[in-house]
Design brief:
The structure holds two protein chains of two kinds. By secondary structure, chain A is an alpha/beta fold. Chain A has eleven helices and nine strands. In chain A, helix 1 packs across helix 8. Helix content of chain B is 39%, strand content 18%. Chain B is globular. The chains are: A alpha/beta, B alpha/beta.
Chain lengths: 255, 365
C-alpha cells in the first residue's frame, strides 16, 4: 500500500499539549513540512519562545534553543551569525514579539538579519491565562481588560507586520491565518517563501499567523475560526506586506 | 595599552569570535576595539546591539552555536544583562561578561566603584546559580584573566564575569600577551543542526519540579567543584604582618601604596587580595588568620566583600572596615592614615610626638 500522508520527519511523534482548536499545532506541522520539503532538517535551528509554544522543542525533531521572553530574535541572531548557512527561525507569540520583545524584533528586522520569525498572533496572552496582549482587538474582553479593551486606558492593537514592513532590512513579510484549509495552504506557501528568502540571504522575513485561541476567547473552535474572519482580519488585514524579491521571484517562475 | 583594549586583544587572541555590546561609559573602548579588530579575524562577528539585554542573548545564541563569545558593559547595563546571565547559567552555556563598574546605585556616575560585588558574586539574576567572578588589578592581569575566563567558561560550561572598574578600564599599562591554551570543551551540547542523527535542544525551562530540583543539584555540585578548585588570591607582605588589608582590584592597588607608606613608618601591614571573588578564597584567608588576628577590609563601596571576609574568618580574628562608595577612589595616603589609626597597639606607651611610630620599649628610645 502506498503511503500518501504521514508525520513530517521534522516533527517528533509526541502528542502536543495544545488546547483543542489551537492554531499552534497546525503551524508546527506546516513549519516541519516545509523544512522536510527543503531538505533542511539536519541544518535547521529553531528558537522557541516563552508562552504556549515554549515546549516546541518536545515537538520539533530539529535542534532548538529556548529564548527568554521576547529575546528570540537576539538569540537567533547569535546562532545565525555563527552558522550563516543554517536555516534559523524564531517562533514567537504576540506578547513575546510585540510587547516584551519589540526592540529585539524591530532591530533584527532593521539589521536585515537573515532569520525568519514565525509570529503567532492570537490577540491574547495564552499560557498565562488570557490577559490583554498588544494585539488585543478594541473592545475585546480579557482578564486584564474586563470591560473590553478601550484605547484611552489600554492603547491600540499593534500591527507589527505593517511596522516591520517599513524597515529597509525586511525582505518578506506576510500575514496569513489557519482558520480554513485554503488559509492553511496559503500559510504554508508563505512559510516556504520566507525560508527560501532566508536561504537566498535576502534579509529578514516574517510570517504572521492569525491563530485561533478558543480557550481564552471563550468560544467553540468553530466560532473562533469565524471570529478571525469577522473581527480579527478587519484589524489585521491578510496579505503580503513586503516582498523585495517579488519581481525576481516572478522571473524565476516564468523561466 | 589601555585596560579596555587589553581585554579586547586578549579575548581575540583567546579565540573569541563573537562579541555583542551596547555603548556605556567607562567601557566604550572595549566595544570600539572589538568593532575594529574582531571583524578582521576569520569568522569574527561584532554586533552593536539595540540593548544590553539583546547583547547577552546574542552571545547566548552564538555560544550555543559553538563560538567563544563575549559581551561587556558597566553597572547599570550589567543589571539589564542579568536575565540573560541567569538563563546562560541555567542552560549551561559558556560566555564571558565584562563589568567595568561605575558609581551606583541607579544611573550613579561614571567614576570607578566596587558597588557591584554582591550582584556579581551572588549570582545577580534570579534563581539558584553562581557565576565565576575574576577581579584583575593590573593591566597584565586584565590580559591573563580574560584568557583564563574563556578557559574556565568552557571547562565548566558557565558564564564567567571579569569584574573591574572604570579605573582599570581607562588606565594604561604595558602588557605581555601570553600564548593562549588550545580550546578544550565538550562539544556535545553545541547546536549544529541535527544532521542525519538525533536532534537536541537547550533549555532552562523545566516544568517538572523534581526534574528542576535535580538540575539545581547538578548545578550545585558543579559550583562546589569550582569552589574547591578555582580559588585564586595574592598574599603580599603578610609574613611578619600584625595587620592585613583585604582588598581587590583597584582598591588592592591603593592598598599596596598604603602598605609601602605604613611599612616605612614601621607598621607591619600586609595585603590579602582575592583574585577570584566567587569562589571566594575562604580557605586561604582562614589559613592566614592562624597567625594574623587583625584584618581591615578596604573597598570602594560601603562594605560588600566584608560579608565574605566575616564568613571566612567566623569570629577567629578582628575585622575592621574602611570604604568610600559612589565613585571616590581613596589615595594611598588616606588609606594609610586610616589603617595607622586602627593598627593594633601592643604596648601601653606610645611616643605621641612621633606620628605613626610605634615605640620599642615602655620608656621609648
Amino acid at each position: 500500500m502506498k503511503k500518501i500522508f504521514g508525520r513530517p520527519r521534522s516533527l517528533k511523534p509526541t502528542p502536543t499539549h495544545y488546547c483543542p482548536g489551537c492554531g499552534h499545532s497546525i503551524v508546527h506541522r506546516l513549519v516541519a513540512e516545509v523544512i522536510d520539503e527543503m531538505d533542511m532538517r539536519g541544518t535547521s535551528i529553531g528558537v522557541p519562545p516563552a508562552g504556549c509554544a515554549v515546549l516546541a522543542y518536545f515537538y520539533f525533531d530539529i535542534d532548538m534553543i529556548e529564548a527568554p521572553h521576547g529575546r528570540g530574535p537576539a538569540l537567533a541572531t547569535g546562532v545565525k551569525r555563527v552558522l550563516p548557512n543554517h536555516l534559523v527561525f524564531s517562533y514567537q507569540g504576540d506578547g513575546d514579539l510585540a510587547a516584551i520583545g519589540t526592540a529585539e524584533s524591530f532591530h533584527a528586522a532593521n539589521r536585515g538579519e537573515n532569520i525568519t520569525i514565525i509570529f503567532i498572533n492570537n490577540a491574547v496572552y495564552g499560557m498565562t491565562g488570557g490577559q490583554m496582549a498588544p494585539t488585543t482587538i478594541l473592545g475585546q474582553k480579557t482578564t486584564t481588560s474586563p470591560p473590553g479593551r478601550t484605547p484611552l486606558l489600554d492603547g491600540y492593537p499593534v500591527q507589527m507586520s505593517e511596522i516591520l514592513a517599513q524597515l529597509r532590512g525586511a525582505a518578506y513579510i506576510e500575514r496569513c491565518t489557519v482558520n480554513s484549509p485554503p488559509a492553511v495552504m496559503k500559510t504554508k506557501r508563505a512559510i516556504r517563501k520566507a525560508f527560501q528568502y532566508q536561504m537566498d540571504k535576502r534579509g529578514f522575513s516574517m510570517v504572521e499567523v492569525l491563530s485561533p485561541c478558543p480557550t481564552n476567547w471563550k468560544m467553540s473552535a468553530v466560532d473562533a475560526c469565524k471570529w478571525i474572519d469577522e473581527v480579527m482580519t478587519k484589524e489585521f488585514p491578510l496579505g503580503v506586506l513586503k516582498d523585495i524579491g517579488a519581481k525576481e521571484a516572478g522571473k524565476e517562475k516564468k523561466s | 595599552m589601555q585596560g579596555n583594549c587589553v581585554i579586547g586583544e586578549a579575548a581575540i587572541r583567546a579565540g573569541c569570535r563573537f562579541y555583542a555590546g551596547y555603548p556605556i561609559t567607562p567601557q566604550n573602548e572595549l566595544t570600539e576595539y572589538m568593532a575594529e579588530h574582531l571583524r578582521k579575524t576569520d569568522g569574527g562577528v561584532f554586533i552593536q546591539s539595540e540593548s544590553e539585554i539583546a547583547a547577552i542573548n546574542m552571545i547566548a545564541g552564538a555560544s550555543a552555536a559553538g563560538a567563544r563569545s563575549m559581551t561587556s558593559s558597566s553597572s547599570p547595563g550589567i543589571s539589564l544583562k542579568q536575565e540573560g546571565i541567569s538563563s546562560m547559567a541555567a542552560c549551561e552555556l559558556p560566555g564571558v561578561i565584562v563589568n567595568m563598574m561605575r558609581g551606583g546605585p541607579g544611573l550613579g556616575n561614571i567614576r570607578p566603584s566596587q558597588g557591584d560585588y554582591f550582584q556579581a558574586t551572588r549570582g545577580g539574576g534570579h534563581g539558584d546559580y553562581r557565576t565565576i567572578v575574576l577581579a584583575p588589578a593590573t593591566g597584565q592581569e586584565l590580559a591573563d584573566l580574560t584568557m583564563d575566563a574563556f578557559d574556565l567558561a568552557d571547562k565548566y560550561r558557565t558564564p564567567v564575569m571579569i569584574l573591574a572598574d572604570g579605573m582599570m578600564g581607562q588606565m594604561m599599562e604595558p602588557v605581555v600577551f601570553r600564548k593562549p591554551k588550545p580550546r578544550q570543551y565538550p562539544e556535545c551540547y553545541v547546536l549544529k543542526g541535527a544532521g542525519n542523527g538525533k536532534s537536541k535542544f537547550i533549555r532552562g525551562l523545566i516544568l517538572d519540579a523534581i526534574e528542576m530540583e535535580e538540575h539545581n543539584w547538578k548545578l550545585a555540585r558543579k559550583y562546589n567543584l569550582i569552589s574547591q578548585k578555582e580559588t585564586r588570591c595574592e598574599i603580599h607582605e603578610a609574613k611578619d604582618a600584625e595587620m592585613v588589608i583585604v582588598a581587590y582590584g583597584t582598591a588592592a592597588r591603593v592598598a599596596k601604596g598604603a602598605i609601602r607608606r605604613l611599612r616605612s613608618m614601621g607598621l607591619k601591614v600586609g595585603l590579602f587580595r582575592p583574585i577570584s571573588l566567587w569562589p571566594f578564597p575562604t580557605r586561604e584567608l582562614r589559613e592566614l588568620s592562624e597567625h594574623i588576628k587583625h584584618f581591615i577590609v578596604f573597598e570602594m563601596s560601603t562594605g560588600q566583600m566584608l560579608d565574605d571576609v566575616r564568613l571566612a574568618l567566623q569570629g577567629f580574628a578582628n575585622i575592621d572596615f574602611f570604604g568610600r562608595p559612589g565613585g571616590v577612589v581613596p589615595t594611598p595616603a588616606e588609606l594609610s592614615n586610616v589603617v595607622s589609626r586602627r593598627y593594633p597597639q601592643k604596648d601601653a606607651y606610645v611616643d605621641r610626638f612621633l606620628r605613626f611610630k610605634v615605640v620599642e620599649g615602655p620608656f621609648g628610645p
